[in-house]
Amino acid sequence: MITVTPQAAEQILRSAREHADLTEACLRVAARLDERGGIEYGMGFDARAEGDVQFESNRVKLVVAAGCVELLTGATLDYVEINAGEPRFIFINPNDPSHKAPGPAKAKPSGGGTAPGS
User: Fold this and answer.
1) pLDDT band at residue 83 under the 50/70/90 scheme
2) Secondary structure element (H or E) that encloses residue 91, with its range
3) pTM beyond 0.90
4) Percentage of the chain surpassing pLDDT 70?
């Protein structure tokens, strides 16, 4: 379903511990298509509701409404610092039309020459 990276799990679990009333709550993840066909995401702590799909990834209990399962299957939730000092959660989702899969690693050009001064 959704993979939560260790970095994201650490932040989610820390947040749950800071709010005593959330220790038993699950992280609800939602997704919907916007008017341009991209996927918009939402998440927050919540209780499981009838019809939800519940699962666990890296010790984080997650719930997803049945209507969101197709959009979220195969997604990864990560916690990264894109700009210095601005960490944030991001979704990496192959179901999102704007998702760009990483390309093959480029080979480093061989030096072929001699080091200066030799």
Assistant:
1) confident
2) strand 86-92
3) no
4) 81
Domain boundaries, the chain: 2-92
Residue type, 6: P
| Strands of 53-57's sheet in order across | 39-46, 26-33, 60-64, 53-57
Fold of domain 2-92? Hypothetical Protein Aq_1857; Chain: A; (2.60.300)
Nearest to 34 by CA among 59, 62, 71, 9: 71
Q: Give the C-alpha separation, 31 to 39, whole Å.
A: 6
> In angstroms, rounded to a whole number, what is the distance separating the alpha carbons of residues 9 and 17?
12
74 touches 57 (CB < 8 A): no
Only one residue has tokens 């679990």, namely 13
**Tens digit of pLDDT for each residue in 32-76?**
999 888 899 999 999 999 999 999 999 999 999 999 999 999 999
Backbone dihedral angles phi then psi of residue 47, each to the nearest 5 degrees: -90, 155
